[in-house]
Amino acid sequence: MSLGRGKYDFYIGLGLAMTSSIFIGGSFILKKKGLLRLARKGSMRAGQGGHAYLKEWLWWAGLLSMGAGEVANFAAYAFAPATLVTPLGALSVLVSAILSSYFLNERLNLHGKIGCLLSILGSTVMVIHAPKEEEIETLNEMSHKLGDPGFVVFATFVVIVALIFIFVVGPRHGQTNILVYITICSMIGAFSVSCVKGLGITIKELLAGKPVLQHPLAWILLLSLVVCVSTQINYLNRALDIFNTSIVTPIYYVFFTTSVLTCSAILFKEWQDMPVDDVIGTLSGFFTIIVGIFLLHAFKDVSFSLASLPVSFRKDEKTMNGSLSNVYEVLNNEEGLPCGIEYTGDNISRRNGNLTSF
């Protein structure tokens, strides 16, 4: 791949990834609105295993929006490396948080706005330091990568842990622990991104006139993608139905992105060709996004805005002045207390312990 063509593909992938985030962020709101409508009607909730949401048009609108976002995301993986495309999913968190404040009455305070800014800055840093060229160009190379012993061990571990969470941990703790269903979605998501990347390469080869449809790996990747996406939708619906959208979205982003970056590092080995400063920049951008998402949602229930800053300072000043006044009063009144009695703030107690309080 020439340098000019590589840059052209890079920016196409970047634009598609940003478009994907907008559609996916909006899909969370539409699906949540649909689930809330079903809950008001008394239908069996998705978190309890119900599937009444299949009759709700808002849920389908959210699914279509997510589908459009995933198509754009799918195309982005064909042009840009996973190290760039996946972390940009943070933009979907911002879209979801902003729309939640308008349509789900979930507040976005000063901490949340700072978190949005940090997430955008972190995404920008990751874009600057992301690898500009993709290593795998053909389906045969993809087949060779999938057979790498390191990836085989990683895939086996992920499958075993996911099955344990689905059949053992999920039924026991899925209703009370938000991490259970999100962990399932995230671990399976690592495979779905790998399948998407492989299918993207397949489509590019198909458009180039190569007989890739005769390659068994193309159909294996397609079948695996269907299974992984179906599993993700099922358990993500359960998490959204039980827990707050503004909590599910950022945790899912952190877990999912971490899983994909790990899988990408093992399978595609994109990190091996990156200079040290780009690796540090990519990790710094990712952790900046995590801090931004934490601020966005950790203090979401705190009523705090820029206008309340002067009020807070005045309250702190009054509290400090009041504390100093109390100290001065205690010191001035110490000489007036009876012998054997000491002032303790709220009580007056005798040193011999006979009189404990009034």
Automatic annotation (TrEMBL):
<feature type="transmembrane region" description="Helical">
    <location>
        <begin position="12"/>
        <end position="30"/>
    </location>
</feature>
<dbReference type="GO" id="GO:0015095">
    <property type="term" value="F:magnesium ion transmembrane transporter activity"/>
</dbReference>
<feature type="transmembrane region" description="Helical">
    <location>
        <begin position="57"/>
        <end position="79"/>
    </location>
</feature>
<feature type="transmembrane region" description="Helical">
    <location>
        <begin position="150"/>
        <end position="171"/>
    </location>
</feature>
<feature type="transmembrane region" description="Helical">
    <location>
        <begin position="178"/>
        <end position="203"/>
    </location>
</feature>
<feature type="transmembrane region" description="Helical">
    <location>
        <begin position="215"/>
        <end position="235"/>
    </location>
</feature>
<dbReference type="GO" id="GO:0016020">
    <property type="term" value="C:membrane"/>
</dbReference>
<comment type="similarity">
    <text>Belongs to the NIPA family.</text>
</comment>
<protein>
    <submittedName>
        <fullName>Magnesium transporter NIPA2</fullName>
    </submittedName>
</protein>
<keyword id="KW-0812">Transmembrane</keyword>
<feature type="transmembrane region" description="Helical">
    <location>
        <begin position="111"/>
        <end position="130"/>
    </location>
</feature>
<keyword id="KW-1133">Transmembrane helix</keyword>
<dbReference type="InterPro" id="IPR037185">
    <property type="entry name" value="EmrE-like"/>
</dbReference>
<keyword id="KW-0472">Membrane</keyword>
<feature type="transmembrane region" description="Helical">
    <location>
        <begin position="247"/>
        <end position="268"/>
    </location>
</feature>
<dbReference type="Pfam" id="PF05653">
    <property type="entry name" value="Mg_trans_NIPA"/>
</dbReference>
<dbReference type="InterPro" id="IPR008521">
    <property type="entry name" value="Mg_trans_NIPA"/>
</dbReference>
<feature type="transmembrane region" description="Helical">
    <location>
        <begin position="85"/>
        <end position="104"/>
    </location>
</feature>
<feature type="transmembrane region" description="Helical">
    <location>
        <begin position="280"/>
        <end position="299"/>
    </location>
</feature>
